[in-house]
Design a protein that fits this description.
By secondary structure, this protein is mostly helical. It has one domain. It has 7 helices and no strands. α1 (2-54) packs antiparallel against α3 and α1 runs antiparallel to α5 (130-166). The longest helix is centred in the N-terminal third of the chain and has 53 residues, at 2-54.
Length: 201
């Protein structure tokens, strides 16, 4: 009888240890994967910005042929936006406040330039080159929508990680493995808006 009790206790202890290990290990891997998703979402946002910037030479070339009087989105603002993009790509953690605001402002300024170009093109081109103009617009629409989706995902992933770090009982696992709340500054609601809100009247 005593041996049976000891065997049952041993089995229960082993089962408890396995469950505890699974919970702790699962919590650790969950936080680790969450950190990776933050970095992946930030990279996706930066790549979306890069893709949009790669469309600018085609827009400039189109303007030279259709209406050279419309200034292309080049010069200092574009150089600054590109330099900030490179700086952000080198960051291995969520962006601090100053860099977030500078990056957001540079990309927003670029968006406004692009919007102004398409507004002016619509006013002066009339029926000339409608297919090429529309094809170019659609490329920028798609790039803008990609920016919006990437920004939303980045903001979500960091805020989700922080909520879990603060939430009991998973906060105990976070403390056990040294996962701390991330100090970050989300991109504003007015940054990287979808194309329908940016380019359409």
């Amino acid at each position: 009888m005593q041996n049976s009790s000891l065997s049952a206790f041993a089995l229960a202890s082993i089962a408890t240890a396995i469950v505890l290990f699974c919970v702790i290990f699962g919590g650790y891997t969950s936080f680790y994967r969450s950190q990776n998703r933050i970095e992946d979402s930030k990279t996706a946002l930066m790549e979306s910005c890069r893709e949009r910037m790669l469309l600018l030479p085609a827009l400039s070339g189109f303007l030279e042929r259709v209406n050279p009087d419309i200034p292309p989105p080049m010069g200092h603002p574009l150089e600054k936006a590109n330099a900030l993009l490179m700086d952000v790509l080198q960051q291995k953690r969520p962006l601090e406040e100053k860099m977030t605001k500078e990056f957001e402002n540079s990309q927003t300024g670029l968006t406004m330039q692009i919007k102004d170009i398409f507004v002016r093109l619509k006013a002066v081109s009339g029926p000339n080159n409608p297919a090429e103009t529309e094809a170019l617009r659609q490329k920028f629409f798609k790039a803008q929508d990609n920016l919006y989706v990437a920004k939303e995902k980045y903001n979500y992933e960091v805020s989700y990680f922080n909520r879990r770090v603060r939430s009991f009982p998973v906060s105990l696992i976070a403390k056990l493995f040294g996962f701390h709340e991330i100090v970050y500054y989300p991109f504003s609601d007015q940054a990287f808006l979808p194309s329908r809100k940016v380019f359409e009247p």
